[in-house]
Amino acid sequence: MTKKQIFTLEYPVRCSPSILYEFLSTPAGLQEWFADKVDERDNVFSFSWNGTTDKAEVTESEFEKFIRFHWMNAPPEEYFEFRIEKSEVTNQTILVIRDFAGKGEVKDQSQLWSYQVKDLFHRLGN
Q: Which positions fall inside the START-like domain (predicted)?
């Protein structure tokens, strides 16, 4: 299996970090934009799309700062992460997404994230 590489995407968001964090870290928030159905038990989130379910464990988090998930079926060093940062210049909230993809898959994976984030922004009223 080919080793995947990390990539980072940044999106300016017009909302408070606390509201954004709810959409990134709770089953109800994630179900609004990320998956059709989301459940959580003992720090393991079950994400369902079109009848298929994948599980991811929360490996690290800091309230209103970031949350990192590890897909249960992925190598231990791979994860996806939502990080909330503030631009020092504009004081704008920035959503930073880190994920892993194969060398030839980064563009497709980035487009998929952009599509998902567009749905998130719609829910946030952005």
A: 1-125
pLDDT in tens, 71-82: 999 999 999 999
CATH number, domain of 48, equals: 3.30.530.20
Is the CB of residue 10 less than 8 Å from the CB of residue 94? yes
Alpha-carbon gap, residue 45 to 114, rounded angstroms: 22
Please give the Cα distance from 108 to 88 (Å, whole number): 30
Q: Which stretches in the chain have pLDDT values below 70?
A: 1-2
Q: Note down the domain range covering 19.
A: 5-124
pTM given for the model: 0.94
Q: How many domains does the structure of the chain reveal?
A: 1
